[in-house]
Amino acid sequence: MLPGLSIMQSVALIPLFPLLAALIITLSGARVLKSRSWMPAVIGVAISAVLALSLLVMFQRRHIVGVQHLTIYHWISSGGFSIPIGIYVDPLTSLFLVFVTFVSTLIFIYSCGYMQGDYGYFRFFAYLSLFVFFMCTLVLADNFVLLYLGWEGVGLASYLLVGYYYTKPSAREAAKKAFIVNRIGDTCLAIAIFIIYLVFHTETFSRIFQSSDLKNVGFLAAHHGTLIWIALLLMFGAFAKSAQFPLHVWLPDAMEGPTPVSALIHAATMVTAGVYLIARCMPLFTLAMPVLHLVGVVGCFTAFMAATIAMCQYDMKRIWAYSTVSQLGYMFMALGVASGTAAVFHVFTHAFFKALLFLSTGSVMHAMGGELDIRKMSGIRKVMPITAGCLLIGALALSGFPGFSGFFSKDEILTAAMNASWNWGPLLSVVGFITALITAYYTFRVFFRVFMGDLVLPATAGKHEPSAFVLPEQARLESSAAHGSHGNTGHETDGHKPSDGSAAMWMPLIILACGAALAGYLGVFGGANGGGWIQSFLSPVHLLNGAAHPVVITPGTHIPVQTVSTVRVAPAMLMGAGAVLVLLGVLVAAYFHWANRRAADAVGAALAPVVKFLENKWYIDELYNYGIVQPLWLFGQALSIFDRFVVDGVVFMIGFFPQFTGYVLKPTQSGRLRYYGIGMIAGVAVVILGVLYLLR
Amino acid sequence: MAVMSQAILYEYLSLGAVLFVLGLIGFVARRNMILIFLSTEIMFQGVAINLIAFGRYWMNMDGQSFVIFLLTIAAAEASLALGLVILLFRRRETLNVDVWSEMQG
């Protein structure tokens, strides 16, 4: 692709351009680049996007087929243990690379406008580029250790960006929460990697997944329990990164970061790393069916729970955050019924429409002076028409409105679940349909509340967003402004009319809107045998949809793994049912939140206990607090007492001994010359007498 | 040169010991800084006599050469010590050594 380099060498460069950008910005951002810090970042990630897209085209035109490897060099090598830095490229990698770099490019461009004038502008772009580097490393890695490096790296970037407004206590807390909750999953993943080495004596994907051991009955019988543990630990790793119950608590709080970060990291890309991990390790998961089923059940439950919570939240970003958790739940549900294709398809469409929703929300936030409470604004389509249009398309796609991308991908998941060979599949599918109804409701609740109806702007509208940084000078400036005669000086005077913002902000919105509207058609048209393009594109990926043949573990025990073995309900029927439910949800939202808002309040009052339960997010944070945080705090207190009395006691005792000795011997130092003289003479006398005695 | 007999050596050694002990008593008992200093000089001389007596007894020059160095050092020390004594005297207008007891613990 690049002149003078092979295809694989060019692919290996994809992560390096953002890394280079991050380095350039870090080194020269503060002094040289300043407000031009976006340039290296946007250029770096755009080159990566072009390379990733050409890789996709190569696969499509069959210039490259199947799985490709390139070992760049040996990273860790000790005796028989060797970890290469290498890349593993198959259609799954290629698809992930394309949407990661493409969505990143758009969000980078958006950020140029959105973050304009913010303190630490260059820092933001450095972190963001670093994130893209790690994310590309994660999906390109050809072994578990390198994948783990990318995995930790994106966690680090996420931590840095959630805590970007580090002077704000809530942002600091959210960053720590994200980091600690992710640590649980990371530890599980690390242990899984250790066990994988013990079982397979290698960490390289191709050697593990294609190994003859996985078809060897004796090996499988001997390692059945171990394989279950590997899958279980990988699953927990994926759950923490992808915010699945019970490790989902960090994601809604992560919305403390700047909005483009929420769009890129906490909606479109990083949180799908868990889906990637399980899809990639599907050959291992198909040998541990109970775990795969657990993935499906937890995903389904998370989808439902997060959707119900989203119904009763008032902060727009928080609603989209719970919506992300819910949509990730759908993806895990698809993985649980061994339909990796459906999961990846939903990852792909979700990246577009969720990024679009977040960025549109960012524009609203920008125009409304940082206000995001949907109760405080209404009818703002009149002041920001482009944003309203884009958010509408995003909402249609998210709710799965017929014809938009979410419709096709969600339908694919629900069909796969309904017709899975696993008996619980239909149950998951039914819950999925109910969740789809709720999704349509909460999505359009936001849209109708905020964009339709009479124009109501919050008091802060049109003012510059108060910078989240409380720096000493600014604090002083603001307090002097409050004491001034008008109370309205400084940066608040140069306010602007609420609008769609600069072209850097609305152009990416429009491109994402096209993606959100049309990406779904890739799953219905353009493929072989009348199927979708995505399905035929991903078909070479090894065991993405489970094993084709039942695997015999011990004689008489079969593990049947087949994606769609039965056709319980015709796909067309399911599609129709999905469409009806979505329309119902939209209509309910339209009635309660556009036509007759008083009715919504009345219903809310009638169902007060339920609403309170949902507003408090099922009290899961409280459960964590009383179940884990408080006991840990008490344990810490106990340790502190031990430290203060036992450890410190020993240290003081050791210090006390020479002090006491000195106190006892103190009177011997009189300061009189003659006593020193006598002491000296006595000493010499003793020495001489001693010597004489010894020599006698 | 006639060889010194052992009896005469003992007499010389006794003289040195007497001088040394006298100096020692003076060093401990006196309060006047100059006298204390002189007492130490007397102790020096006691040692020097011993060295010379032994040198004569064994018929070699070791003792004498030692003593020449010893005297040189004692002279240098004396000039230093007297300077210090004068300094201390100027501070307190007295030669009583008990005034200086800052080293008390």
Describe the 3D structure.
The complex is a heterodimer of chains A (696) and B (105). Chain A is mainly α. In chain A, the strands form 2 sheets. Chain A has a two-stranded antiparallel ribbon. In chain A, strand 3 and strand 4 form a beta hairpin. Chain A has 28 helices and 4 strands. Helix content of chain A is 68%, strand content 4%. Chain B is an all-alpha fold and 105 residues long. Chain B is 77% helix and 0% strand. Chain B has 3 helices and no strands. Chain B is elongated and about 55 Å long. Chains A and B meet through helix 28 of A and helix 1 of B.
Taken as a percent bin, the fraction of beta residues of chain A is: under 5%
CATH architecture of chain B, please? Orthogonal Bundle
Q: How far apart are the first and last residues' alpha carbons of chain A, in Å?
A: 99 Å
Q: What is the number of helical segments of chain B per DSSP (H or I, 4+ residues)?
A: 3
Domain count of chain B, please report it. Answer: 1
* Quantity of strands of chain B, as a count: 0
Which ranges of chain B are low-confidence, i.e. pLDDT below 50, for 5 or more consecutive residues? Answer: none
- CATH C-level class of chain B is Mainly Alpha
Largest sheet of chain A: 2 strands, antiparallel
- The SS-based structural class of chain A is mainly alpha
The number of helices of chain A is: 28
Q: What name is given to the CATH topology of chain B?
A: Helix Hairpins
What is the N-to-C succession of helices and strands of chain B? Answer: HHH
**Approximate shape of chain B:** elongated
Distance between the termini of chain B: 57 Å
Mean pLDDT of chain B: 90
Unreliable residue runs of chain A: 475-494, 554-558, 560-564
Which oligomeric form is depicted?
heterodimer
Percent range for helical residues of chain A?
A: 55-70%
